[in-house]
Fold:
Amino acid sequence: AQSVTQLGSHVSVSEGALVLLRCNYSSSVPPYLFWYVQYPNQGLQLLLKYTTGATLVKGINGFEAEFKKSETSFHLTKPSAHMSDAAEYFCAVSNTGNQFYFGTGTSLTVIP
Amino acid sequence: GAVVSQHPSWVICKSGTSVKIECRSLDFQATTMFWYRQFPKQSLMLMATSNEGSKATYEQGVEKDKFLINHASLTLSTLTVTSAHPEDSSFYICSARPRMTLEKLFFGSGTQLSVL
Structure:
């Protein structure tokens, strides 16, 4: 069975500061891992994903995430926060792509 | 990129009525579509998986007679909330997976349902 834990339902950072959103997963098989962003009143957008290969994955808008198997983690980072990054972020895990299991989401606030 | 259109974006209805939500893949064929429900401040909950031409697979705890899912074509899936009650008020999101891909999903913009 797969599950996802996102530590911290709310994260606030100052504009220009490092963004770190945490995601830990459990999976009985090698997982596919995803980060999605949801802006207010919009659907989910894929930020980045890990399937195989390089464990450091770069996504859109300057975000990146590193798959650490030993820690069962897939934390999302961005070196410098921008006001437009304020949104809800969801981590998700899938095994074969048939079903996706989402974390509870982290609401990111960027303080000017 | 691929586009999934979800309609309506919001709907208000009276208790006891039925509401249909459409999910269309505009520029690709989707053999599989997923329906999620999101409660405020909670995670997305997978409700069901629909495969074109066959019955939907519902997650445990989801009433299949209440949430009717039809996937009649490779570009359209519908979710009908039958005899809606205030506790059905929620944000519903669909996603679609193009044929010949394993992990790529495209999401609709969601439907906010309010049942009075």
Remarks:
- The first strand of chain B starts at residue 4 and ends at 7.
- Chain B touches chain A at residues 4, 6, 9, 32, 34, 36, 41-44, 46, 49, 93, 95, 97, 101-103, 105, 107-110 (CB under 8 Å).
- Chain B has no helices and eleven strands.
- Chain B has a mean pLDDT of 87.
